[in-house]
Amino acid sequence: MPSDAEAEELAAAERQGDPYLVFKDSGQRQRVISLPDSWERATVGRSLAADVVLSWDEDVSRVHAELQRMGGEWVLVDDGLSRNGSYVNGERIEGRRMLQDGDEMRFGETPIQFKAPFQARGETRIRSTQHRPLGRGAREAAGDPDLDAPHQDPPD
Q: Residue 88 phi/psi, 5° resolution?
């Protein structure tokens, strides 16, 4: 359960509206890092030059992974820079993975929660690769001259 100060820090991050990261440092103090619109990427690593510094975690590489903004969404990129890999919701990531509000990333032994207060919800619908023939109403609305002709299925 977060302390009052931690709860207020989280509430302030939510009100700001930018996506943000939440994690505990080596002293178990909550850290909140905002990902403002001005950032296109953020590096994660043990190096003090990283944007998200995890210097206490010996299982994290100096340059471990990168977060990239793509089309207004944040993506975790792990192109093999780390020896121990990067995880989202327990699954090892190779390459890129789009982040959703509430996802838990893990670098070494450090879990980091991704929060996106105003992220659009919903899954992308995957359409069938086969096209179905139009029904009578759609063909009629389109002015199909062969509306009353016998229907034949196209050859396979």
A: -125, 120
Per DSSP, the three-state class of 143 is coil
Distance of CA 12 to the CA centre of its chain: 22
The DSSP secondary structure of 94-109, one letter per residue, reads: SEEEE--TT-EEEETT
* Cα-trace Rg, the chain: 24
Closest CA to 28 of 56, 59, 61, 69: 56
Residue 87 Cα to chain centre, angstroms: 12
Q: What's the burial of 104, exposed, middle or buried (CB within 10 Å: 0-12/13-18/19+)? A: middle
CA angle 47, 53, 58 (to 5 degrees): 65
Dihedral-angle region of residue 98 (phi above 0 means left; psi in -120 to 50 means alpha; beta otherwise): beta
Q: What is the pLDDT of residue 109?
A: 96
CA neighbours closer than 13 Å in the CB half-sphere of residue 110: 28
Q: What is the pLDDT of residues 81-125, one digit of tens each?
A: 888 999 999 999 999 999 999 999 999 999 999 999 887 555 555
Please identify which residue in the block is written with the tokens 């196209």. 154
With CA atoms as reference, report the closest residue to 76 among 59, 95, 54.
95
